[in-house]
Amino acid sequence: MVVVPDDIPPLGEQYGGLVISRGQEEKEVGILEVEECGGLPLIDLEDLIRGEEGRGGDERKRRECAAAICRASSEWGFFQVVNHGISPELMLKMRREQVKLFQSTFHTKSCCGVLDNSYRWGNPTASSPSQFSWSEAFHIPLAKISHHSCYGDDFTSLREVLMEFAAAVSRLARLLAGILAENLGHPRGVFGNVCNENNAFVRLNRYPACPLSSQMFGLIPHTDSDFLTILLQDQVGGLQLLKDNKWVAVKPNQDALIVNIGDLFQAWSNDFYKSVEHKVMANAKMERYSIAYFLCPSYDSIIGSCKEPSVYKRFTFGEYRTQVQEDVKRIGHKIGLPRFLL
Questions:
Q1: Which terminus of the chain faces fewer neighbouring Cβ atoms within 10 Å, N or C?
Q2: CA distances from 168 to 88, 179, 263, 299 (A)
Q3: Greatest CA separation for the chain
């Protein structure tokens, strides 16, 4: 029997129940081979941002930057960006508000309607330790973040900061998506009507220190079910991605945001851009915070290939989400795009 400590949220209790019910050891969730990732593309957006804002910049550098974004999206599915236009002061304010939110009581987070009842923890569908995530999160639709009723009296300052941060990261996401679309011969605004701010999500993550094992998942291996994701992480580390059939650890860079391609962009690009499996490993001694922005279309938006012959059949974002949820409930993990191959 595995003895687990008390925790708020009661992650240890839930995980311990899985171990007991399945008679499995912690090593089931262990990692195999991990390499330090020294080659993850790092792209400077300064000239690109200056051009978008009408402040000049070097045209040659803008073209080189756009080419680097498209190359990284095809070869890695992940890249880092610096000089991205989101101020360090805003990111620091967002982090302070996030920490304050997660330091509130478990009852406040889970039962008091904070942020439209978007609080999640652990993994209620897990049937084995390998499907369990040692984390808690608020997964918030941007359409809700302006509502005063979502914050109550305790988190009024969070509303203004979250709205400012979401607007800034939305601009960056649309810029990157436009560059990726243009590279495939389409206008930059091709996603403008279907990927407006009301369809996007922000996820505030906390990964508590995990005393059970250094090989515990903070977030189980997965791909993202969106067009692209922008991630602000702290300096603790733990993010790993799959490259050439090996897990590689992404070293934190305090000046950089992480960008990764989602399933919808892989399908729309006919597999030219890659939605890459990634995970977060828990830390035995330190908690970790991150904030993810997900660029999503409306649920009734049809995802088709940007060229023929298509690799995937056409589907709506709503159909895709429903299939993912059904698979997770039935077999414990996401299948994703292979469900929609022609």
A1: N
A2: 12, 17, 23, 23
A3: 64
H/E stretch holding 73: helix 59-75
Unique residue bearing structure tokens 């701010």? 197
The answer to whether residue 57 scores a pLDDT higher than 80 is: no
Q: How far is CA 85 from the centre of its chain?
A: 19
User: Which domains does the chain carry?
Assistant: 11-297 (2.60.120.330)
Percent helix, strand and coil across the chain, each to the nearest 5: 40, 20, 40
pLDDT (tens digit, 9 = 90+) per residue, 258-307?
Answer: 999 999 999 999 999 999 999 999 999 999 999 999 999 999 999 999 98
CA of 124: how far to CAs of 15, 209, 256, 330, in Å? 10, 20, 33, 12
Instruction: Give all strands (DSSP E) within 19-77, no chain letters.
Output: 34-37, 42-44
**What amino acid occupies position 300?**
D
pLDDT of residue 331: 87
Relative to beta strand 228-233, strand 288-295 is antiparallel
Cβ atoms 137, 120 nearer than 8 A: yes
Phi, psi of 188 (to 5 degrees): -60, -30
The residue-averaged pLDDT of 105-124 equals: 92
